[in-house]
Amino acid sequence: MKRIGIYENVSMPEAIRCAEYAAKRLVKMDAQCFAKQELIERIDPEISKKFEVVEENEFEKFIDVLISFGGDGTMLSAANLLLKSNIPIMGVNVGKLGFLAEYSFQDLDKALIDLIEGNFRIVDRSVLEGVTKDTTFYALNDFVVEKLNSSRMITISAYTNEHYIGDYRGDGLIVTTPTGSTAYSLSCGGPILSPSAKVICITPIAPHSLTYRPLVLPETNEIDLKVFSPTGKANFVADGRTTLEIQNKDMIHIKKSDYVVKLIKPVNSTYYDLLRKKLLWAANVIDITQKC
Fold it and tell me: What's the CATH code, domain 3-120+266-279?
């Protein structure tokens, strides 16, 4: 990988510093680097003059791989940017938890060497496609339908393959991919799904009835949602980024997209290693081989 795009969250000073550090290493390894003007203006001129400046929506024309510096939100933006290109994304976490942005700053030197030498693996992550108001949206993590500007509950009628599931009454509903199962869905009591699982999960947000539980469906199923809000309107959100106001008459149709997002992962790391690291599973287990 010699043609590398640098994609950063410019609102995070840590992301800019991390991107500059990586750029210095990449230039020394004779990589050709591409970045937005916003980053070029914020880093060492001696480094930036060796960059190619590109518009955000033109990365795919020039690069072999994109490195994202920020948190999972930055990764979601990068994924949306390259959705139709099949260009892999490497995420360096300078945010908080970082399930998508898996690489840490502490491991960055080795990660960049591995990237240049091809010592990594690429995994495909499924994407959801949602259509409402004659507009198509995509989500690597999830779609959320939620109440808008009111404390009153909304009701969402859900169907799958034209079969009626039920009316969810509460603060809203999440439709998530396996990748997104560790995001908003998890905080609402949804299950953790292996990224390779071929499923879609529906998770209610603060349901009024305790009997409502997350529902896991095959990824071949299509989902239709119809919203009733006492105020006449609600929010439709794609990956926490794109928000669209919808009215009671609007229908939302969701299905698995034909597109996938390609993520770069360490060769010797598994999803279960990531869960233990990020969720601190077994963090306090005593080594029984040690003598008291």
Answer: 3.40.50.10330
